[in-house]
Design a protein that fits this description.
Elements lengths: L10 E2 L5 H20 L6 H18 L20 H6 L16 H6 L17 H12 L14 H8 L25 H12 L10 H13 L5 H9 L5 H11 L1 H14 L19 H13 L4 H10 L16 H4 L8 H17 L18 H12 L1 E2 L14 H31 L2 H12 L7 H7 L4 H16 L6 H7 L6 H14 L7 H4 L9 H28 L12 H11 L18 H20 L11 E2 L6 E3 L7 E4 L6 H4 L12 H8 L7 H14 L20 H13 L4 H9 L15 E3 L10 E3 L1 H4 L12 E2 L2 H12 L35 H5 L18 H9 L1 H5 L1
Helix pairs in contact: 2-5, 7-30, 8-9, 8-10, 11-12, 13-28, 15-16, 17-26, 18-20, 18-24, 24-25, 29-30, 29-31
């Protein structure tokens, strides 16, 4: 055994008793009742979901017919307010909060009833949009709209001037307190001052066994060993606990534990989410995870850590390319079937909520309804990321793993399979285009003769030709017509003949072409009209056969040369007249000589699917072979984009142009647009600027949450106008200021928090009565009460909060105390849900964001779909059943 298995009061445990299972079930049922009772008060996450997903959907698809602005209100239904939704229209309420199956709106968007379909006329919502509506209704249909004009800009900006989070960080002087002996540093003074205001006293110090267990789990995610506990118990020096903290911070296990906290914020996963015929795994996702672990272990200054994650490609890195892996922070989100607008939205969200505590993504379709973030600011950031791209060939990180030769050989074989198959299909596609000259000539003519021309792509589809190739033919034919091209001159002449008198006029034209007295017609073409055509389609077929014959001559020449040894490769047909015809098929810019990069769309469906599968197996090799050299999931500069607002979030509805620049609320009205390329580096520098009042506060608050169980600001990823103020505002600012002054050192921040008396309190405090003023008019005067009565939520920190072990700590502790843990660091992810489960630390487990294993969900693992500010803990029977029945637990 590596250490004692004990269940201190500081860390609750689920035991193996039948009574515990019953207790858990009862608690779960009570929890469900409690949740139901509070359903009327939607939490910020529910409102954010409405603003990000539901409001834009309704505005784009429904308001035209169902809002106060509709020219003609249909069905008496108004969907632009909460009351309108609940009241409904002529057929009744539009939604039943909590029950999608009883909601008419859900029935309508599903097209389940042919008489009730919204939006109408075949404009059905996508499956994802319908799922969003179902999720929203099922969760209670949170809706902040009142039917009035909300979120007026001037009202929001007025509130902004006094909102605490937007004020400069000031390092307040620690207050004077009565119990000076309890104060070990400024942190304690701020905490104790709040307690003394309420006439409360802090709890007694935790015993040393509890304290070392608390610190070891906090910093490493593992229990202490028996030897470590014994050493600490024997150490009677005044700095005994400081030595424990320093030892734990120096352990490589520290980086593994605290990297996991950051990976929650970074919405880390090893897969892209749902993808169609594409490898779902990111081949080098693990390099970001390993970068974060190393950065925490080496105490990379956090401002530098942030800059590397946003713009490492623009830093002077020299020979050390490892920081490029930091950009997985941007690139490892869900891929939304490769919809670039959604991918960029996800990147804006992880940067703004993860680093700034602002819900900027809510301004994608309209000015933010609650915070000072106009839509223009959203698209300023959109332009930054739209001006960046991911390199096709990911940069190497300079490490050659074992079995690299095996990997190279296998990859070469798989790439050859792809290239050979694709080359064959490209050859077939080019041959097909050269054999369809007739079809494209007739489609071109039919489109030119239309008075009211339809959309070109639709017209091409109806005529079973490729629109891109048709546009190439259109451009070439227009140029040849202006230049009186001698090959196509007869075609243009026949094409202008009135169809009702075609035969007579064509006979006259044909005779002139055959005679070719002025030598303006290509001689081979002139000889094609000895028999006058009777329709334009026949003319097109004559041209089609001509180019098929030309292709046959060229292929025959190539075959003859292939049979000869030492033959010079042919570059042209020997007959100049036929070579001129061959150039129509093979010259650069020819309408049928489509570049290789554009040929994929011409492949038939089975061929396209097979090519996608061959590409997938190459990506699979990169993601799974131990010999694949690690590469960075990085970004690089692309073509600089001048962004414009998407009106109502619709990319096809362009609004005004905006410059690429930082948020106005954080940089003022005198801000300057970014000037260096995409602006990513300037964005990163603005985020970590000491003049930015948010970044340090947000990070300090996240660290406090992990150490004390509750954050100073209740909503770690939302410091906007709707958030509750910090419980200790002066302390938050003091910590943020001190953090920046000490070089943005995370390890130093840990020391500041953990070496305080506040951190070292017992979690069993509050049982000793203290004097507090009563609000009653009793003549008895002050009465004795407890911290549990005055501050039951422990906002004032009169004791240490009890904390549950999370999923990683629970699994890792089982491995650790069994002596079976494999402490190998880094590398490819492992399937920890396999049987038998690999004995690696849980942070190295494979995370499939599309199909997150039930075990992860049972123990409240962070949702990897978006940045996760904190984990929410549940108590359900499945947790006890896992500990009772899991083969993994039995094996340990």
């Amino acid at each position: 055994m590596n250490g004692p298995v004990n269940c201190s009061s500081d860390f609750q445990r689920v035991n193996n008793s039948f009574a515990t299972k019953c207790f858990l079930l009862g608690t779960a049922l009570l929890g469900a009742v409690a949740i139901s009772a509070h359903a009327a008060a939607p939490d910020p996450a529910a409102l954010e979901f409405f603003e990000k997903k539901i409001r834009p959907l309704l505005a784009e698809n429904c308001y035209k017919c169902h809002s106060a602005q509709a020219e003609k209100l249909k069905g008496g239904l108004m969907l632009d307010s909460k009351d309108g939704l609940l009241k409904g229209g002529d057929t009744g309420p539009a939604i039943t909060p909590g029950d999608p199956e009883k909601s008419l709106l859900i029935k309508a968007v599903r097209y389940a009833d042919e008489n009730l379909q919204m939006p109408p006329k075949g404009k059905k919502l996508s499956a994802e949009q319908i799922a969003d509506l179902e999720t929203w209704v099922k969760a209670g249909a949170a809706d902040p709209r009142t039917g009035k004009v909300e979120g007026k800009a001037n009202e929001i900006w007025t509130k902004t001037k006094t909102h605490w989070a937007f004020q400069p960080i000031r390092k307040a002087t620690p207050p004077t307190v009565k119990d000076r002996a309890w104060v070990k540093g400024p942190l304690d003074a701020f905490v104790l001052a709040k307690l003394e205001e309420k006439n409360l006293k802090p709890s007694a110090p935790a015993d040393k066994r509890t304290l070392i267990r608390r610190a070891t789990f906090d910093l490493t995610g593992l229990p202490p060993t028996a030897e470590e506990v014994a050493t600490f118990l024997k150490d009677k020096s005044t700095n005994a606990f400081a030595k424990v903290v320093d030892r734990l911070l120096a352990s490589p296990r520290y980086g593994e534990r605290w990297a996991r906290h950051w990976l929650d914020v970074a919405r880390y996963a090893d897969t892209k989410g749902y993808m169609f015929q594409e490898e779902r795994r990111y081949p080098y996702s693990y390099t970001y995870r390993d970068y974060v672990i190393k950065a925490f272990n080496t105490d990379v200054p956090f401002d530098q850590f942030i800059v590397q994650q946003i713009a490492a490609d623009q830093l002077e890195l020299g020979e050390k390319k490892e920081p490029l892996a930091a950009m997985g922070f941007l690139t490892l989100g869900r891929r939304f079937l490769n919809n670039q607008n959604d991918i960029i939205d996800d990147r804006i969200d992880v940067v703004s909520r993860g680093l700034l505590g602002l819900t900027v993504a809510c301004a994608r379709c309209h000015d933010h309804k609650f915070d000072p973030i106009p839509t223009k600011d959203y698209y300023s950031l959109y332009g930054v990321f739209a001006s960046s791209k991911e390199p096709h060939e990911k940069p190497l990180l300079g490490i050659t793993p074992p079995k690299h030769d095996e990997y190279l050989a296998e990859k070469k074989q798989r790439q050859e399979n792809l290239e050979n198959f694709k080359a064959q299909k490209e050859k077939e596609a080019w041959a097909g285009l050269r054999g369809r000259v007739s079809d494209y000539l007739m489609t071109w003519h039919d489109f030119q003769t239309l008075t009211n021309k339809p959309e070109a792509g639709q017209f091409a589809q109806e005529h079973k030709v490729d629109n891109g190739v048709l546009q190439r033919w259109t451009g070439s034919l227009d140029a040849w017509k202006k230049a009186s091209n001698n090959i196509f001159a007869p075609w243009f002449a026949f094409a202008e003949v009135d169809g009702t008198n075609f035969a007579a006029k064509a006979k006259e034209l044909a005779a002139g072409f055959v005679a070719n007295t002025n030598k303006l017609i290509h001689p081979v073409v002139a000889g094609l009209f000895t028999n006058a055509p009777t329709s334009l389609k026949q003319v097109a077929d004559i041209y089609g056969k001509l180019f098929i014959d030309t292709e046959a001559r060229w292929q025959k020449l190539l075959e003859e040369q292939a049979k000869q040894t030492n033959a010079t490769a042919a570059v042209a047909l020997p007959d100049a007249n036929w070579e001129a015809l061959r150039q129509i098929l093979y010259a650069e810019g020819s309408p049928v000589n489509v570049p290789r990069g554009e040929l994929d769309r011409l492949f038939d469906v089975p061929s396209g699917q097979h090519i996608a599968e061959l590409r997938r197996v190459i990506d699979e090799l990169d993601a799974t072979h131990p010999g694949a050299p690690p590469r960075a999931m990085s970004m690089k500069e692309g073509d600089v984009v001048t962004p414009h607002v998407f009106l109502r979030g619709n990319a096809n509805n362009a609004g005004p142009d905006v410059p690429r620049q930082f948020l106005q609320v954080l940089s003022g009205e005198t801000r300057k647009p970014f000037e260096k390329g995409s602006g990513r580096l300037e964005l990163a520098q603005a985020i970590v600027s000491k003049d930015n009042p948010l970044t340090a506060r947000v990070l300090v608050n996240r660290v406090w949450l992990r150490h004390f169980g509750k954050a100073l600001v209740k909503t770690p990823s939302d410091f906007g106008l709707r958030c509750e103020p910090p419980t200790h505002p002066e302390l938050l600012d003091w910590l943020a200021s001190d953090f920046m002054e000490k070089g943005w050192s995370l390890k130093q921040l840990h020391r500041t928090m953990m070496l305080s008396s506040a951190y070292q309190q017992s979690s069993d405090g509050g049982t000793t009565p203290v004097k507090a003023l009563t609000t009653s008019k009793s003549k008895a005067g002050p009465v004795a009460t407890t911290g549990a009565v005055i501050d039951p939520e422990n906002h004032l920190l009169w004791k240490m909060n009890r904390q549950r072990l999370d999923f990683e700590e629970l699994r890792d502790a089982l491995l650790f105390v069994s002596g079976k843990m494999d402490l190998t660091m880094g590398g490819l992810p492992v399937e920890i849900v396999a049987d038998p489960s690999p004995p690696r630390r849980t942070i190295y487990g494979y995370i499939d964001r599309q199909n997150l294993p039930g075990l992860f969900r049972t123990f409240d693992f962070a949702n990897p779909d978006s940045t996760s500010p904190q984990r929410f803990y549940t108590t359900v029977p499945q947790q006890a059943l896992f500990l009772l029945n899991s083969p993994f637990v039995v094996q340990q």
